[in-house]
Amino acid sequence: MADENTQLPEGGDAPAAEATGAPEGRRERGSRGGRGRDNRGGGNRGRRDDRRGGRNAEEDGGEELIEKLVHINRVSKTVKGGKRFGFAALVVVGDGKGRAGFGHGKAREVPEAISKATAAAKKAMVRVPLRDGRTLHHDGLGHFGAGRVYVRSAPAGTGIIAGGPMRAVFESLGVHDVVTKSIGTSNPYNMIRATFEALGEQTSPKSVAQRRGKKIADLMARREGVAGQAEALAEAEALVE
């Protein structure tokens, strides 16, 4: 009998189970449960990824965003064993239709830093009212830290007269005619923040008319003068922002 028990057939898993005293049905349920848990985990991860992709598509609105890398800097962090080097990126993102934002990110590698900065810029996008979809409604002044910038509206055909970080902001914003001047620091971070401070003060005739309880045509006529009342009325009718 001892020799028969020690000899196992070629597919001898079942006698081994009987020798250990574990019921065969319980072992099968356990194995199916393990596979079920793995399948459930994989299915949940797949659904989470699908939902995350859907949210990103909704946030972008199906529009192609303009991404511009303004500045990238090598940074270091002193630790016990020495220094850890990384990279810091400054990115400006816009849709070319009056919405723009900026963000910065740090990482050990350049692509990861750029992706972090781009994600931060998409979350911080703001809307700026534009005149005829090409220039600003009025002049503005922005100040942040040691940075001071001036922005002025310009007639058609002027182009973007700006340099460095400010040009990236207006190109991503969708402005075609603008005159700017930077006085003070040349730090790209302060220049970008000062530029957005100036853009945040922009107001459209529509919002001013609603706040003052007047008609848009009255405001436009006052700006153009008495001789240009007809032109102001036509422009007020065609005004979107």
List the helices and strands and how they pair.
Elements: H1 2-6, H2 13-20, H3 24-60, E1 66-79, E2 82-94, E3 99-107, H4 110-123, E4 126-127, E5 140-144, E6 147-153, E7 160-161, H5 165-173, E8 178-184, H6 188-200, H7 205-212, H8 216-224, H9 229-238
Parallel strand pairs: 7-8
Antiparallel strand pairs: 1-2, 2-3, 3-4, 5-6, 6-8
Helix pairs in contact: 8-9
Short description:
This protein is α+β, with helices and mostly antiparallel strands and 241 residues long. It has 9 helices and 8 strands.
How would you characterize this protein structure?
By secondary structure, the protein is of the alpha+beta class. Among the domains are: 66-127, Double Stranded RNA Binding Domain (2-Layer Sandwich); 204-241, no CATH class. The protein has nine helices and eight strands. The strands form two sheets. A four-stranded antiparallel β-sheet has the order 1-2-3-4. Strands 5-6-8-7 form a four-stranded mixed β-sheet. Helix 8 packs across helix 9 (229-238). The longest helix is centred in the first third of the chain and has 37 residues, at 24-60. The protein is elongated.
